[in-house]
Amino acid sequence: MIVVMKQRSSEDDLKRVVDLAKSFDFETNISKGAEKTIVGIIGDNVYERREAFEALNCVEEVIPVLRPFKLVSKEFHPEKTVIEVGRENIGEKFQFIAGPCSVESKDQMEREAEFLSNLGIKFLRGGAFKPRTSPYAFQGLGIEGLKILKEIGERYDMQIVSEMMSPEDLPLFEEYVNVIQVGTRNMQNYRLLEQLGHSTKPVMLKRGFMSTVEEWLLAGEYLYYHGNSQIILCERGIRTFEKYTRNTLDISAVPLVKILSHLPIIVDLSHATGRRDLIPSLARAVVAVGADGVMIEVHENPERALSDGQQSLNFEEFASTYDTSMDLVKMMEEI
Question: Could you give the domains of the chain?
């Protein structure tokens, strides 16, 4: 349940609420907004103790949270969460996250970063450890790829986004990456999520390709519960019977998440469609429904990419998509 503090409550008042919760062996999570402070109370049969909290003079109201996800819910945190990443953020202004599916070489990443940086892109994505369906496909450069990403990111003042596969790799990603991505196959890898719950880095949590929105938010709850509230949700399409696209983009998930949760949400159009010819139109759709950003795979020569070339835009295609999308962003800000 949620305990809403009165507007002029003090730190001592807040401590009284927390101490009362602890006396019942409940856990607490404090959210301080611009106007109100909210205390999330978590535990078995927590609502049976409602009257004890309502009796405190510093408490304005006690609200039950009936949804299975608590900490990521809008009830717990009515104000939108903004994730700070270096000097940038996700949640306050529309962001493009772009780069190749895989880090192939230092020269390749140099050219990618120079092109993207000149456009004004602040987030560079690239896979160092690549989870591929086939064991014969390119699996990434591993640690060397992470080192390349960090060096290029520092040179061009870009924030690095890359996918982490194993809990044992957390120290590496803490050192080399700014945003740790959890891929669709690992959305319900709870050992991995628990480790990332202890991380100091923001986590981009991709929706599982067979997962409901509720299951996705519960995976986010798992991260939040274990201590990491820096969560960026990423819709990347779900598997349906449709064969013309790699996945089916659930565009409705964006406004739905905005209703249910305070977390920022972006959309990975490359994996949602698997087709570069659909990405420009859908990028504008993503802006229109209120997403906080978009992730697109970019390669200087998609036909020669070592992975996912069919869903990567070349430099010219990406520049055009970026310009038209940002024009729409500006237009919507003026409305």
Answer: 2-63 (3.30.70.1140), 83-334 (3.20.20.70)
